[in-house]
Amino acid sequence: MTTKPKIAPPGSICVIGLGNMGIPMGACLQRAGFKVTGFDLSEAARGKFRAAGGEVASMAADAVKAADVVITLLPNGKIVRSALTALQADIKPGAIIIDMSSSDPVGTQELGKSLIAAGFEFVDAPVSGGVKRATDGTLAIMVGGAADTIDRVEGVLSAMGRSIFRTGVLGSGHAMKALNNYVSAAGLIAAVEATRVGEKFGLDPELMADIFNASSGRNNTTEVKLKQFIISKKFNAGFPLRLMAKDVRTADDLAHAMGAAAPLADLCADLWDGAAKTLDQDADHTAIGLYIEKMKS
Ligand code: NAD
To answer: Closest Cα to atom 11, ligand 1: which residue?
Structure first.
């Protein structure tokens, strides 16, 4: 059996979705020496990538046709499925497709069946770390799928990330990403609620944050968000609330699909969806503090 070659610079990569993550991640790939072509439905997004020195195509079919690797960085799994299904006839036979969006794992497994049956290789590789770490090329990447495909794209992933975790079967990266964000989102709400209750009792919120961080209540929110973005009322940590709401709902849907009771995830998903419907479309996820503040007890 012959081993297929690893994808190395100057291999050709297409990035579909030039939003907050696609632009800096595409730039990392270019810096690593890959030939990158970007595509986005939005002319403004294409313009931004071009202004940052990237090459863009104005049609998705032109963007993918010469690519050894097609990366999707799209809003959700449904959009990924419809974009890739529509592009199957245009993508180079045998190309590797990597969905780096935060998609739903069950949908990813369904999509994988049709892409793999059509002769493509496909892995899911969602990321954690936000725009800052996307810009620095230091994302955490959780990748699911066939080990030999992951071996082939390791150089591509390591151009964008510092830690690359192999999570198992196709879809397991997406499952891990949604579950991670559920844990983060639940911890954020607990920290916000506790701080608000304490403040009403007469505790100093800043002191509360210091005590959480020296005690067993410490979590990612108490460490890097509570004082910085919530108590300060800046609400600009850099991760949109609509994406957090999507991730928590994905985790909750996964719990139901697995038949695993997750009563807190049910409540949490409803809370984040409620905030996403009420607050501004561009609201930061830390602004759930404002939403909870306005709720009746
Ligand atoms: P974004 O909304 O900024 O960008 C998405 C882009 O996709 C937009 O420019 C949009 O025009 C484009 N698009 C939508 N449908 C398209 C289609 N059919 N074809 C081509 N382009 C299309 O989103 P983002 O913040 O870049 O996030 C991308 C993915 O990464 C999401 O799944 C998100 O959950 C995940 N993610 C985001 C962050 C973050 O901090 N922003 C962190 C981790 C993971």
So the answer is: 42
pLDDT tens per residue across span 48-72: 999 999 999 999 999 999 999 999 9
Locate tokens 């529509």: which residue? 86
Same domain for 187 and 62: no
Torsion angle defined by CA atoms of residues 250, 254, 257 and 262, in that order, rounded to the nearest 10 degrees: -110
- 177 as an active site residue: the answer is yes
pLDDT in tens, 87-128: 999 999 999 999 999 999 999 999 999 999 999 999 999 999
Q: What is the residue range of 43's domain?
A: 12-170
For a pocket test of ligand 1, which of 41, 108, 247, 281 has the largest count of ligand atoms closer than 8 A to its C-beta? 41
Element (H, E) at 69: strand 69-72
Q: Is the pTM value of this prediction over 0.85?
A: yes
Cross-strand partners of 284: 240
Same domain assignment for residues 197 and 285: yes
Inside any domain, residue 162: yes
The residues lining ligand 1, judged by C-beta closer than 6 Å to any ligand atom, are 16-22, 39-42, 45, 73-76, 79, 83, 101-102, 127-128, 130-131, 239, 243
- Do both 156 and 23 map to the same domain? yes
Q: What one-letter code names the amino acid at 66?
A: A
Set 35, 92, 177, 225: catalytic member: 177
